[in-house]
Amino acid sequence: MSVERRAHTALHVVKGAIVKVLGDGAKWSAGASANGSHGRITVQFDRKPTDDEVRKIQRLANEKIKEDQPIEIHVLSRADAEARWGDLIYDLFPLPEHITELQVFHLPGWNVNACNKEHTSSTGGVGELVINKARFRNKKQLLEVSFDLVE
Ligand SMILES: [Zn+2]
């Protein structure tokens, strides 16, 4: 399993855990990046999470990985995707209008997001992860959550 796929899939798993712990106020992603075994997901949020909340995000993410839930990848028209999932498939910054067909990552009950990257076939492919930093940028109202995959 390539580390790129693992780290990229982990972004979705961590994002889902963030929303479970912090609520819908954290549902808009402002950015996501993976570099080797390191990843960072940025969401719009209005405060710094407590240490306890950050620990809970890590715990829920690892539980979801252990569960080895299958990941669904759907390729469909943008209109059909919006009809099915609404704005949940989008990030903070809009997709260009000319994009009319989407690949959608769907982990039922956890995360759904238009995403054209490659993923593992189930959450277990990610392996364990550790959240090593949660930085809140007050001026921008952004929360950056960084993690590393455990080899
Ligand atoms: Zn993805």
Ligands (ions, cofactors included): zinc ion
Q: What is the architecture at the second tier of CATH?
A: 2-Layer Sandwich
The total number of structural domains is 1
The strand count comes to 7
Helical coverage, percent range: 25-40%
CATH class: Alpha Beta
Radius of gyration: 15 Å
- Percentage of residues in DSSP E strands: 25-35%
What does this structure look like?
Strands 1-2-7-6 form a 4-stranded antiparallel β-sheet, covered by helices on one side. Strands 3-4-5 form a 3-stranded antiparallel β-sheet. The chain contains 3 helices and 7 strands. It has helices spanning 3-22, 51-67, 78-85, and strands spanning 29-35, 38-44, 72-77, 101-107, 111-114, 129-137, 142-149. The protein has 151 residues and is of the alpha+beta class. The site of zinc ion has 6 residues, from α1.
In short:
The chain has helices at 3-22, 51-67, 78-85; strands spanning 29-35, 38-44, 72-77, 101-107, 111-114, 129-137, 142-149. With 151 residues, it is of the alpha+beta class. The protein has a single domain (3-149), classed as Threonyl-tRNA Synthetase, Chain A, domain 2 (2-Layer Sandwich), CATH 3.30.980.
Keywords, please?
single chain, 151 residues, alpha+beta, Threonyl-tRNA Synthetase, Chain A, domain 2, 4-stranded antiparallel sheet, globular, binds zinc ion
Layout of helices and strands:
Layout: H1 3-22, E1 29-35, E2 38-44, H2 51-67, E3 72-77, H3 78-85, E4 101-107, E5 111-114, E6 129-137, E7 142-149
The structure holds zinc ion (ZN).
